[in-house]
Amino acid sequence: MVVSLSQGSMYYRLFQPRYVQFFGILKHKTLQCGCGIRWSSQTASAKKGATFGILFDIDGVIVRGRTLLPTALEAFHKLTDGRGNFRVPTVFVTNAGNTLRQQKAEQLSNWLGIEIHPDQVIMSHSPLKMFKQFQDKHCLISGQGPILEIATGLGFNKVTTIETMRSMFPMLDMVDHKRRIKVPCAFAQYFPKIEAVILFGEPVRWETNLQLMVDILMTGGQPSIVPNRLPYPHIPILACNMDLLWMSEASMPRFGHGCFLVCLEHLYKKISGKELKYTALIGKPSEITYHHAEHTVAKHARQIGLKENQIRRLYAIGDNPETDIYGANLYNRYLQSKRANKKRKVTQLKAAQQVAIGSTSDSRFNVYEDLVIDDGVDVEPLGVDSCESILVQTGVFSDDSWDDNPQDLHHHGHRDFGLDPLLKKPTYMVKNVLTAIDHIFRKEEYR
């Protein structure tokens, strides 16, 4: 019988009526005692499986544009068992929103040479499926790619694209003289009122999208009617992907959807005199995206044969301090606050029980698994303990632009997330995705 206490602890083996005791730091070594019996030791993490999950950004971490980064294949080889099966719960969290999740999974599979299931991929728009109150409202959608298919796949039943809106109201789009249509549509008066706007990602024709969106917001969703006064608050806006910049094959970062949002916010305020307000901001760095990612990691843990409640830590690997790092640190702050609140509730509950029964020494009163407080918050299990951020230097971030003083870092994040410079500081900073995996494995004593 072998009992592993911990790495560097004593290991005991039972022979006949007496114990033989071994001392020393043991990892994956094969040892042989005097009786000729061979045995091997392993770290505890290797025996019971990974107790951590990994969240990968894609652009700037695994690829740049459509070019696979040199260290990506070796990094993912370490995460699998040699037959393409994942050993570590792995989820891809991208702010891209111009493609279907299935297509992104297929693209990743082709790049990495291993099967990536669509359930492992979180697009910037994935959490929108939780906003069921908008699924039966008439929504105007903006972006590029198969956004109509994306919207219906997320459960939105009544959607209109910017192009359809332009066809119905051709007199609205007047910036490009060559595209002007001077004949009005006869069916414009029957067009149903727009009840919400969903922004999936950066569009192709910014001037058309900006003009029509401002029209919709300033007319309460009815661009054929001039209101007597400005409808405010305006109709709901749900925006995905706040990345100001992203990294492709070009030497400098490219405009992201965050740039489009900046234009929309400033134009609306300049014209209306009012602040543009979002009903929801989806995608990194929002907590809702990382909350969704945590549940996705737990699901993948089950699929690869692990217990979902054994995942105690998340590692988020990204290249953008403004979204990847800020979001991971923001979610980690939420986790710490959540744990503190739940521990406080448990302490209060224990104190109440002490008053009721005089003592909590009886083990019957020390079991708090699946306990539900009156506000509906379960005390156990607590979920993951932490979400640690890892910044790589293969994308948006450049070591040359880094300043050790977080107060001096320029703010590229979205205005609604404020500016907390400390949240832009990664837990760890490494060269590339391979050194990130090596660092995680060393920290977790996992091989």
Structural notes for this entry:
- The protein has about 450 residues and is of the alpha/beta class.
- The chain has ten helices and 20 strands.
- The strands form six sheets. It has a six-stranded parallel sheet with strand order 10-9-6-18-19-20, sandwiched between helices. Strands 12-11-13-14-17 form a five-stranded parallel sheet.
- The two termini are about 25 Å apart.
- The N terminus is likely disordered.
Measure the end-to-end span. Answer: 23 Å
- Please trace the helix and strand order, writing H or E for each element: EEEEEHEEEHEHEEHEHEHEEEHEHEHEEH
Question: Assembly state here?
Answer: single chain
Task: Give the averaged pLDDT, no decimals.
Answer: 81
Helix fraction, binned, reads 25-40%
